[in-house]
């Protein structure tokens, strides 16, 4: 122990002991402020261990005179039934299934799921139900704060088939079922490519194909008369994943509608499917960074969408814009009808324990002022939120002071949702 | 790894991951991204040798040793890429508030050479003895004393000589 050892040193005095005592105390306090996502770290650490074991195993095999060429696999198709309202496309699509050889150590990229089978990385996938649920939960923060319930998932630990997750999201406007699913496919298969084409629908529901080839359908469960809307976004990755995000305006496909429309916009639904794609590596295992690292905001609309969702009661968003690490909202006071400018900027900063700094600054027009709250998250993301007393910073003021109080701006700046961005 | 052994590893690592991460944050002087990477690498190495590590007297202390050595290896690899700056950034004026104190400590740790920082973390965060610290870092006890003494002098200069007023009696 530090102090015990210091007693060996004749020159050590009381003040030095005190300094070391205090240093230990401060280190304990400082260390205690860092909070880890333990499950994600543990999963990622175990994954590294399995990969190391797989590499070691491969090295041993090579030394023994075996070559990877001798481990070639041939694929066969198992065709599933396509269609159905509640089943996901990923559930029913043709699957690329590797044939296996009877013995030998696993060749899985993460070194697991062996059972004597050798898997083709192009058709292999491994995702635990808990990982899929976590992925769904952390991919939904673009939504206003709501409650998640009835989480369930399906694991796929190396075999053909789907890995999926679903939950019921309730933002007090009506409970909605949201699901994600993923399975390995052959991206060049013409039958698979058909899944991304819009056909004629019986009730004339909209279907669009986006710039990245993703398909979005806005249909109904069992026809329009049911009132239950089901929106689906389907995409195929170059690495051979069929991915789908589905949402309903009901808590279950067979239940009664709880709201007019599902909670995510069509764009947000497509973004959710894209995030599921990004969570998998080309080897079919889940990318640890999908859980441990915040998502980059570059080239996304997440910042201004998030800001719009954080506007407090009494103000309504009548316009918003931005891109990348900046976003703004034009907000209108429900009582005074005054429209003002609310802005958020993200940047880098040094974590300082969650301290919030507030200040006032001049706008770009005489009399226009901004009130700002700024904080830095534990991961070093600086969040700066500014409310102006004008519709735009360069326009004449419409109020004597910005409508948002320092407390309201601080609440926006310290909202937990920013932690998931970078 | 057999399932029972993997379960044993998961159980052990699950209880240790949080502490490892906090240690790594101090070693990296607050770089949480690098800290996450170090913890993952540590757990990966532990996983690989879990059969043997599970038999040692104190696997948790072993994990800390792996973490420190992983950190030092990383710093050695990185050292050729680093560009020392002539002037260090401004250090905040320390007051009694905890957030500023944490910031000041992390900055002060960041200005120590990696090995000195590792000595400080092992001695004052992990409460390791000089001999245990020497063993973990694979250096001699006298080298630990020298580094500890030098590091404390720099920290004292950086943090103001006495931390008494910064650590209110609890």
UniProtKB/TrEMBL annotation, chain A:
<feature type="region of interest" description="Disordered">
    <location>
        <begin position="203"/>
        <end position="226"/>
    </location>
</feature>
<feature type="region of interest" description="Disordered">
    <location>
        <begin position="89"/>
        <end position="121"/>
    </location>
</feature>
<protein>
    <submittedName>
        <fullName>Uncharacterized protein</fullName>
    </submittedName>
</protein>
From TrEMBL, chain B:
<protein>
    <submittedName>
        <fullName>SigE family RNA polymerase sigma factor</fullName>
    </submittedName>
</protein>
<keyword id="KW-0804">Transcription</keyword>
<dbReference type="InterPro" id="IPR013325">
    <property type="entry name" value="RNA_pol_sigma_r2"/>
</dbReference>
<keyword id="KW-0805">Transcription regulation</keyword>
<feature type="domain" description="RNA polymerase sigma factor 70 region 4 type 2">
    <location>
        <begin position="103"/>
        <end position="155"/>
    </location>
</feature>
<dbReference type="InterPro" id="IPR013249">
    <property type="entry name" value="RNA_pol_sigma70_r4_t2"/>
</dbReference>
<feature type="domain" description="RNA polymerase sigma-70 region 2">
    <location>
        <begin position="28"/>
        <end position="79"/>
    </location>
</feature>
<dbReference type="InterPro" id="IPR007627">
    <property type="entry name" value="RNA_pol_sigma70_r2"/>
</dbReference>
<dbReference type="InterPro" id="IPR014325">
    <property type="entry name" value="RNA_pol_sigma-E_actinobac"/>
</dbReference>
<dbReference type="InterPro" id="IPR036388">
    <property type="entry name" value="WH-like_DNA-bd_sf"/>
</dbReference>
<comment type="similarity">
    <text>Belongs to the sigma-70 factor family. ECF subfamily.</text>
</comment>
<dbReference type="InterPro" id="IPR039425">
    <property type="entry name" value="RNA_pol_sigma-70-like"/>
</dbReference>
<dbReference type="Pfam" id="PF04542">
    <property type="entry name" value="Sigma70_r2"/>
</dbReference>
<keyword id="KW-0238">DNA-binding</keyword>
<dbReference type="InterPro" id="IPR014284">
    <property type="entry name" value="RNA_pol_sigma-70_dom"/>
</dbReference>
<keyword id="KW-0731">Sigma factor</keyword>
<dbReference type="Pfam" id="PF08281">
    <property type="entry name" value="Sigma70_r4_2"/>
</dbReference>
<dbReference type="InterPro" id="IPR013324">
    <property type="entry name" value="RNA_pol_sigma_r3/r4-like"/>
</dbReference>
């Amino acid at each position: 122990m530090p102090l015990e050892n210091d007693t060996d040193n004749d020159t050590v005095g009381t003040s030095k002991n005190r300094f070391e005592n205090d240093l230990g105390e401060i280190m304990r306090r400082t260390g205690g402020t860092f909070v880890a996502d333990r499950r994600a770290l543990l999963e990622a650490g175990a994954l590294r261990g399995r990969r190391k074991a797989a590499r070691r195993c491969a090295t041993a095999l090579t030394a023994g005179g075996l070559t990877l060429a001798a481990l070639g696999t041939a694929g066969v198709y198992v065709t599933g039934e396509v269609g159905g309202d509640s089943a996901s496309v990923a559930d029913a699509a043709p699957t690329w299934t590797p044939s296996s050889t009877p013995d030998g150590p696993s060749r899985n990229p993460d070194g697991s799921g062996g059972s004597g089978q050798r898997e083709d990385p192009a058709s292999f996938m491994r995702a635990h139900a808990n990982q899929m649920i976590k992925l769904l939960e952390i991919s939904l923060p673009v939504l206003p704060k709501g409650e998640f319930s009835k989480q369930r998932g399906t694991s796929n630990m190396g075999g053909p088939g789907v890995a999926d997750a679903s939950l019921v999201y309730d933002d007090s406007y009506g409970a909605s079922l949201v699901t994600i699913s993923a399975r390995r496919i052959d991206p060049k298969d013409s039958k698979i490519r058909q899944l991304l084409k819009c056909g004629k629908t019986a009730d004339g529901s909209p279907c669009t194909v986006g710039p990245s080839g993703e398909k979005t359908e806005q249909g109904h469960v069992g026809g329009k008369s049911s009132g239950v809307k089901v929106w689906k976004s389907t995409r195929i990755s170059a690495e051979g994943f069929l991915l789908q995000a589905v949402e309903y305006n009901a808590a279950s496909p067979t239940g009664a509608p709880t709201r007019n429309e599902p909670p995510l916009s069509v764009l947000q639904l497509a973004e959710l499917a894209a995030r599921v794609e990004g969570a998998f590596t080309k080897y079919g295992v889940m990318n640890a960074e999908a859980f441990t690292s915040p998502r980059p905001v570059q080239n996304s609309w997440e910042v201004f969408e998030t800001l719009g969702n954080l506007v407090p009661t009494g103000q309504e968003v009548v316009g918003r814009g931005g891109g990348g690490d900046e976003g703004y909202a034009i907000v209108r006071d429900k009582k005074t009808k005054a429209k003002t400018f609310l802005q958020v900027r993200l940047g880098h900063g040094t974590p300082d324990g969650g301290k919030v700094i507030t200040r006032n600054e001049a706008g770009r027009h005489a009399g226009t002022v901004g009130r700002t709250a700024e904080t830095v998250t534990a991961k070093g993301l600086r969040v700066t939120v500014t409310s102006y007393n004008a519709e735009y910073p360069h326009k004449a003021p419409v109020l004597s002071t910005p409508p948002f109080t320092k407390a309201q701006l601080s609440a926006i700046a310290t909202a937990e949702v920013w932690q998931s961005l970078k | 790894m057999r399932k029972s052994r993997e379960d044993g590893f998961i159980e052990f690592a699950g209880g240790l991951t949080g502490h490892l991460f906090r240690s790594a944050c101090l070693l990296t002087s607050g770089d949480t991204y690098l800290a996450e990477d170090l913890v993952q690498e540590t757990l990966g190495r532990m996983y690989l040798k879990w059969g043997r590590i599970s038999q040692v007297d104190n696997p948790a202390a072993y994990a800390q040793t792996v973490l420190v050595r992983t950190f030092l290896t990383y710093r050695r690899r990185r050292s050729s890429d680093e560009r020392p700056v002539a002037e260090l950034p401004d250090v905040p004026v320390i007051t009694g508030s905890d957030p500023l104190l944490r910031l000041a400590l992390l900055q002060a740790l960041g200005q120590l050479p990696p090995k000195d920082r590792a000595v400080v973390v092992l001695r004052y965060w992990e409460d390791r003895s000089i001999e245990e610290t020497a063993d973990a870092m694979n250096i001699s006890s006298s080298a630990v004393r020298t580094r500890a003494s030098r590091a404390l002098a720099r920290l004292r200069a950086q943090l103001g000589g006495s931390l008494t007023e910064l650590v209110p009696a609890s």
